[in-house]
Amino acid sequence: MRRKVKNRNMVGPDFVYNSQKLEKFINYIMWSGKKETARKVMYAAFDVIKEKTSNPNPLEIFDLAMRNAGPSTEVRSKRIGGANYQVPIEVRAERKMALAMRWIRDAARNTKGKPMYLKLADELIAASKNEGSAIKKKEDTHKMAEANKAFAHLAW
Q1: At 86, which CATH number?
Q2: Rounded to an integer, what distance in angstroms lies between the CA atom of residue 16 and that of residue 36?
Q3: What is the domain count for the chain?
Q4: Alpha helix (H) ranges present in the chain?
Q5: Is position 57 within any domain?
Q6: Looking at residue 100, what is its pLDDT?
Q7: Is 61 part of any domain?
Q8: Is the pLDDT of residue 84 over 80?
Q9: Tens of pLDDT along 9-32?
Q10: Which residues pair with 87 in a beta bridge?
Q11: In this structure, is residue 8 part of a structural domain?
């Protein structure tokens, strides 16, 4: 069994919205260490969210999108007696947030034909309305866990 992680690096809050969660997401968007570029993309996406929605605070849309995109259960592979079983387990809060951020980022990156800030804004708005690719990924994960509920007694 793995040891508990003792010294996890905590990111500081971002400059504009004073949110640690947003700064963590900016780190997820960042490519090749270009953090300033990732910040520009994120803040431009927030400007688009302000325009497209009636909400003047895009951080609320962002938080709602993260809550909606995070899965509550997932499957883990467990080997018992030469056979591999997909065992459904609860998802910890940290992992739920990490998966939500990754799925929203990947959904935005896989959309073609628009600048990243527009794709990211569209995906965040869609996730806040329980729509979009990230939400589909979450539903697929839940379906997989539901289908393998018979093996829940094998959970460790």
Answers
A1: 1.10.455.10
A2: 13
A3: 1
A4: 20-29, 35-52, 58-69, 93-110, 116-128, 133-147
A5: yes
A6: 96
A7: yes
A8: yes
A9: 888 898 899 999 999 999 999 999
A10: 76
A11: no
